[in-house]
Amino acid sequence: MIDESERERLYARSPHNFVRIEFPKDGPDDKYARAAKDLADWTNRDHILSRDGRDSFYVHYYGFELAGRQVMRRGIFGALRLYPQNEGSVLPHELTFPKAKADRLELLRATHANTSPVFGMFADEDGLMGSLGRAATHERAIRGDAASGLAAEATIGTERHVLERVEDSVTVERITSALRDQRVYIADGHHRYETAFNYLAEHSGVGPSAPERYTLAFLCALDDPGLRIFATHRIVQGADEALESAIARSFDAAPIDRGALGDIQPGIVVARGGMFRALALRPSVDLSALPAAWRTLPVAIAEEFLVKPARDAGAEIAYEHDTERAIAGGTAILIRAVDPPTLQRVADAGEKMPQKTTYFYPKVPSGLVLRTLDP
Question: How far is CA 319 from CA 109, 162, 192, 302, 330, in A?
């Protein structure tokens, strides 16, 4: 989720910045082969990276600032077995783009490593994550950081990262048992998960426990207080008449003050020229073209009855999760964010949300934990 200028800044920051692996620049050579060489050199020659000697989980504590207050998200890095969607064990929630999957597959082929994780969520009804947090705090207090499995810690601006290794057999088994029968809902990394399946298809003869049958995942509880989902707003450039006709055809519109936006409680708000209108879909509108699980989703309603008519009339559509930037970008269709229970409900129904529905914040940092597929 970085642009070219941010990539350049990270390249210049360090010859070992992980962006060189995860998002290598184009050049006269094969950028994927270059990423693979860098990864091998950092591990085997330069000792920038080191391999664990034992199978481990990693617990990541991510402190960040949001709306002026400190928030913490907690999750586990581990190897997630690949399951076809029809088995119902690992469920996507959003449609994907083919181009992004092709890029991820080339990187996986070259590096033989999961360089960044799938971000998944699970219903932590037994309180696994809370118990791990309490155990880690207790262990640190008794034994001190050096003996408590602390793998890394860093403060970067307003963000705080703590990474703890879990390798004792009792805790590893407790985590494995607690997650074994859990349904995992993919938050971010749909492309990575599908890419792992494509890579497995290229190695179809491997055994049932082969590393190709797993992928790196970061798992977070659905009710984690630090789990944040932002909406992805639509910016419509052009085709104003078509958009206005779509509004008049399917919605009742009421002006609202900018200060009443809040978290877009009306569900859909159209912003243009400093004016804001809350839209309510008329009860008479036929929703039969939408999957049943979509019919109460503001993003699906906006896509079907606002964005689609504007796009068909020649409008260009851009996407922005920041509300202020969306408003400044032109005619903005502001959409209420999807909450975790709604995402869970749609995925359980076997449906995927429209592309660019959710923006999970903050992203799981790449480079904290890698998973190699080589022995």
Answer: 30, 32, 21, 13, 12
Q: Tokens 């996407």 appear where?
A: 319
**Segment (H or E) for 270:** strand 268-272
Mean pLDDT within 110-127: 95
In order, the DSSP letters of 305-374 are: IIIHHHHHTT-EEEEES-HHHHHHTSEEEEEPPPPHHHHHHHHHTT--BPSS-EEEESPPPTTSS-EE--
Q: Tell me if the bond preceding 283 is cis, omega within 30° of 0.
A: no
Share of the chain above pLDDT 90, in %: 66
List residues bridging with 88 in a β-sheet.
none
Span between the terminal Cα atoms of the chain, in Å: 31
For position 275, what pLDDT does the model report?
93
**What whole-number distance in Å separates Cα of residue 270 and Cα of residue 306?**
10
Q: H-type helices in the chain, by residue range?
A: 4-13, 19-22, 31-40, 98-111, 128-143, 169-180, 190-201, 240-250, 298-302, 308-312, 323-328, 340-348
From the CB of residue 21, how many other CB atoms can be counted at a distance below 10 Å? 23
Its pTM surpasses 0.70: yes
Q: Rounded distance, CA 363 to CA 340, Å?
A: 16
Say yes or no to pLDDT of 19 above 60.
Answer: yes
Residue type, 287: L
Contact 317, 232 (CB under 8 A): no
β-bridge pairing 118-122 and 184-188: antiparallel
Q: What is the pLDDT of residues 222-277, one digit of tens each?
A: 999 999 999 899 999 999 999 999 999 999 999 998 876 765 566 999 999 999 99
In contact, 167 and 56? CB cutoff 8 Å: yes
CA torsion 122→127→128→131, rounded to 10°?
Answer: 150
CA distances to 94, 226, 272, 283, 338 from 335, rounded to whole Å, are 16, 21, 14, 19, 9
| Half-sphere exposure at residue 92, Cβ-oriented, CA atoms within 13 angstroms | 20
How high is the pLDDT of residue 262?
Answer: 64
